Amino acid sequence: MNPADAVLDKQAAGAYRHWRLDKDADGIVWLTFDRAGTSTNTFSKEVMEELGAIIDRLAAERPKGVVIRSGKESGFIAGADVDEFTRIDEIEEALAIVRRGWDTFNRLAALPFPTVALVRGFCMGGGFELALACRYRIAVDEPGTRFALPEVMLGILPGWGGVKRLPRVVGPSAALDLMMTGRSVDARRAKRIGLVDAAVPPRVMENAARIMILEAPKPRSLPVVQRLMNGPLKSIVAAMARAQLAKRARREHYPAPYAILELWEKYDGDPFLPSPQDPASIAYLVQHPTAKNLIRIFGLQERMKSLGKDSSFQAQRVHVIGAGTMGGDIAAICALRGLTVTLQDTTPERLAPAMKRAADLFGKRLRDKLRVRDALDRLIPDVNGDGVRHADVIIEAIFENLQVKQDLFAAVEARAKPGAILATNTSSLKLADIGQRMKDPSRLVGLHFFNPVPQLQLVEVVAGAATNPEWAKKGAAFVRQIDKLPLPVKDAPGFLVNRVLGPYMANAFRMLDEGVKAETIDKAAEQFGMPMGPIALADTVGLDICAAAGKSLAGADATPPRRLEELLNAGKLGKKTGEGFYRWEKGKPVKGKADPVDDALVKRVMDPYLAEAKKAVDEGIVADADLADAGLIFGTGFAPFTGGPLNYLKNRG
Ligand code: NAI
Description:
This protein is 48% helix and 13% strand. The protein is of the alpha/beta class and 653 residues long. α1 (45-61) links the parallel β2 and β3. α3 (91-109) runs parallel beside α4, α6 runs antiparallel to α11 (255-267) and α10 packs antiparallel against α11.
């Protein structure tokens, strides 16, 4: 705490459960948000009511200024209390929550003295809207500081003033982008786009806030072009944004980004102006099935996170064996998350491409030269495998060859620390077989990552017949440590994700052989809401990998699809070789015109996926249907607005 905070307004101290007021010698009130009973600040009804009372009092007392900050280690404010939001079943309750926040933040914005939001760590949703209602914003320049309005991802909109204020602060282009995608920005980017008045290091943050109040500079005004875009040119900007949006989301599937656009365009961001029937209204969005499904998925994501809560396991060093497509990227992600990683392959030449890819990834994700350098320092090439002896987690990602993997694990087990997790990234071999030559096969777990590793959040945590559940739990904790989502699965062919994709892709290949165009098949899947059709997906994954997965699922004797076989024989393996079912240019498939797609065709493309998902749940591959839904959404991008394949089947009846 700042020394000046020692001068306490006695009357204010202890009066509130979630907020603390300290007045310093300059007459500045330091308003600290420290929600009782939780480690993260979120806005519940009680929190908001207290804030309302505090604002009224400050309005009467007129201090020199107010600095709002967080009392939590974890960050600034995570947003509204989603638990509270998910419990409501009456539309009136939802509207009351919106009304409370909207009114409170309007009163905050109207305070007649300088107000500063001092943001350190995450600043999301309602927290972001609180910051927007302050006259000034200061961001602490640290890796954890991030601003986002993720409401759109829950199928709703920022109704506490975000849609109104953000375009005035950063201009409509940046504002619409942030609000319609839910994307986050760090402190430096926030400074560049004008979202914050200053981005400062932690040691000067309090001083910066104090100076901001004492000097009270004129708030930055928008450049003329942005003001025009927010005024007379609004409808042109909105039309352009709508056209862009239509390319990536259909309104019947995702109404929220359209509503955000219209609330800005027609109602200047006031959520109480549109009538409840208007698709731009909160009432419309909250009652739409998409919001229910997306909020449900949010809950499932939290559940998956909790599956990785094993506080007793914390890795510092990771050793990855095999620096190919998967191993290289797994190692890079671990280094990105702050772990020290040794990466082993047979020769330095085999390690080089993985190191190069890692450098590119660090550059893209960290942007800061020093942080990139530190991450690169943490990633150590290790041809001799010296890292095995020091690692807390050892991940094998070598060729899919049983005997070589068996030999490897026997050797690794002998050198590893007793407490180290021994994990394989195999996609098709049984853990019981891989661990056959180990002294203690109960240590072996599967950590099945998905390609591309940096993008896909899911990791299947496989427990084989011999695996001790405690090791699987540690595996899940490690998955959380590197910020991925763990899904415990049974050791059965294809686990969950590949097993469900198998029949779906095989069916698509059969349709191709019957003469349906690749473009038409992909269009049907996209029409359903998949991010990419099965044929483009096969090209992306690699046709050799698809063929191998197909064999392991359907048996080596099954007749392979004709067109797939032809392409394999011609060495056309998909995106990675520049041609597969499609020709690929600049990372994109070159597509011809699709034939018209009707509901029957959509059903024909999607039914094998849905049927296999149901079978996998019935056979207990995952604990329950909810986890299958979550796994398939985060592992295959299954249309999120449906709430997942099992939820979709339930609703379809
Ligand atoms: P890859 O062929 O790209 O890389 C394998 C690497 O392992 C090569 O660089 C090779 O030199 C190295 N290697 C082989 N034997 C070694 C040994 N004894 N010691 C050290 N290094 C050795 O293979 P990829 O695609 O990365 O697959 C690796 C594993 O991950 C396989 O088990 C595969 O089933 C699994 N997997 C692959 C996915 C994919 O989409 N490619 C997805 C999920 C899992």
